Amino acid sequence: MVKGKKEIQRARMWRYFLDAATDVIEEEGIQNVTIRKIADRAGYTSSTAYNYFKDLSHLKFFAAMRFTTDYLNELPDYMAKGKNTVDKWLYAWECFCKHSFEQPEIYSVIFMGNLGVEPEELLDHYYDVYKDDLSGLPETIQAIIMQHNFSKRSAQFIQGAVEEGFIKQEDVTLIADMTLMIWKGMMNTYMNHRRTDTKQEAAARTVHFVQQCVIRSIDPSRRDELAFNL
Fold first, then answer.
1. Where's the HTH tetR-type domain (predicted)?
2. How far apart are CA 22 and CA 25, in angstroms?
């Protein structure tokens, strides 16, 4: 459907503010982002910014999404290493942990921050403006990315492991929820300096815990079929 002038203008203004937010994040870090700083950088007033973003958490969410490009670009190559659904899922986790622990503040805003609304709504809005971010990605991966709820995203993907006979249907939701909690727990521990792990060590430890969680749900006779090896 062809967009009207108002929609085009709104998308243009949206980009102005997100470009400004991106600059502020690169210079000062996402924790120092404020509506006023972004509005000043974009050349508008704070009240104008609030015409396009309900509150600061939404603007930070959208701006943080701009920093996930490297993750999205690498994800297909990581998943291509796997020969079955479980393998592909574990390699996807390895890619996600690599990038999320590289930029913990960014990924915590996207997946852990209080947004006040359903994140799927924000995600749909973001990719409506930044369609190019998904161009070139396989449809299966696009479907994963567009599902913001991490547990649902995992459950949606590893459903294939049930069909392949690796995992029982009744274990899908449990695995999806447990692995998400593993990542959140490790991310919180890392960001609050409760361990002395480097970002690489924290990422590797998280993937190891996820791997162990999954392996324990697989029939021992099928484990040798997995190629993933951290």
1. 11-71
2. 5
> φ and ψ at 87, to 5 degrees?
-60, -50
User: Which sequence spans correspond to the domains of the chain?
Assistant: 5-53, 68-225
Q: Which CATH class is domain 5-53?
A: mainly alpha
What is the topology classification, in CATH, of domain 68-225? Answer: Tetracycline Repressor; domain 2 (1.10.357)
The residues, ordered by sequence, that sit 6+ positions from 197 with a Cβ below 8 Å of its Cβ are 190, 205
Q: pTM (2 decimals)?
A: 0.86
Could you tell me if 131 and 15 are in contact, meaning their C-beta atoms sit under 8 angstroms apart? no
- 118: exposed, middle or buried (C-beta count within 10 Å: 0-12, 13-18, 19+)? exposed
133: how many CB neighbours lie within 10 A of its CB? 18
Distance of CA 89 to the CA centre of its chain: 14
pLDDT tens for the 230 residues of the chain, in order: 445 777 778 878 888 998 999 999 999 999 999 999 999 999 999 999 988 888 888 888 888 888 988 998 899 999 999 999 999 999 999 999 999 999 999 999 988 877 766 666 777 777 777 676 666 667 766 766 666 566 777 888 888 999 999 999 999 999 989 999 999 999 999 999 999 999 999 999 999 999 999 988 898 888 888 887 65
Domains 5-53 and 68-225 share a fold: no
